[in-house]
Design goal:
Elements: H1 2-26, H2 37-47, H3 50-84, H4 86-100, H5 108-115, H6 119-143, H7 147-155, H8 160-194, H9 203-212, H10 216-244, H11 246-257
Helix pairs in contact: 2-10, 3-4, 3-6, 3-8, 5-6, 6-8, 8-10, 9-10
């Protein structure tokens, strides 16, 4: 019980401190672009009604999940192939390094030429940005599979799909989830950026519209919604990771307890 309370204090301690600093630092502010936090919080329920949440937040989340899922499937599949074969890795590595260095926002005008300005463009932008940490972490995870484990599986006749599922992907899964965690943060950023180009809905679109209309407190509420969305997605991801990698975290905990 004591550990639970202590952990809860760690979780809420820093956010509460930052909110308190923001509250007192902005209190009494007359700057148009830096309104008091109490004004922002008072504006919040008037701006983010159920209708606006359905019209702006829901499309953003759907596009984010679509692009993120596409990147996860492609990144894990291609990364597994590249990580499993040395010659394929040597052949693809220069191209991968070149493509990874190209910032996805730079590609938005090019993608708009082929995919238009609808949902497809935004999903592609998110997927292109998210795929690299997933792919590269998958490659490293597959490369690091214990050779003794692989030989043991082969000696027991575990080959093909069974070896891929129960040996390769299972051993590489901690590294894969590290890439998925990085990609989630990148996906949220690209979700907002892509919605600032030729969009008619979404969080990024709403924030830009508030800024252009000089509705500054409304703009700040949009930023708060974006932060809350990122926090919620992070919590959900951690729950999924804990469930899928329960064996891994359990092994690490036992190794720390052992003398």
């Amino acid at each position: 019980m004591k550990q639970v309370l202590l952990r809860s204090l760690y979780v809420v301690g820093l956010p509460a401190l930052l909110v308190a600093v923001w509250w007192f630092a902005s209190d009494g502010s007359t700057d148009v672009f830096w309104p008091p936090l109490r004004t922002i919080l008072k504006t919040f329920p008037d701006v983010w009604t159920g209708e606006r949440l359905r019209a702006d937040v829901l499309p953003s989340v759907v596009r984010l999940l679509a692009g993120y899922t596409l990147a996860a499937v492609v990144g894990v599949a291609v990364g597994t192939v590249i990580g499993s074969y040395r010659r394929v890795r040597a052949f693809c590595e220069p191209v991968l390094e070149f493509l990874r260095a190209v910032p996805p926002p730079v590609l938005i005008p090019v993608i708009m030429l082929f995919a238009g300005i609808g949902h497809t463009m935004k999903i592609i932008v998110i997927a292109i940005g998210c795929v690299w940490p997933i792919l590269l972490n998958t490659v490293e995870g597959v490369r690091a599979v214990d050779s003794v484990m692989s030989e043991t599986a082969r000696s027991y006749g575990i080959t093909g799909v069974a070896r891929l599922r129960y040996v390769v992907l299972r051993a590489a899964s901690p590294q894969i989830f590290a890439g998925l965690r990085q990609a989630l943060s990148i996906g949220i950023i690209l979700m907002v950026i892509s919605e600032m180009f030729g969009a008619s809905d979404g969080l990024g679109f709403s924030i830009v519209q508030f800024q252009r209309g000089f509705a500054i407190p409304d703009m700040w509420t949009g930023i708060l919604v974006l932060g809350l969305l990122g926090f919620l997605l992070s919590v959900v991801f951690q729950l999924v990771e804990r469930r899928v990698l329960g064996w891994y975290h359990g092994r690490r905990a036992s190794s720390r307890r052992s003398p």
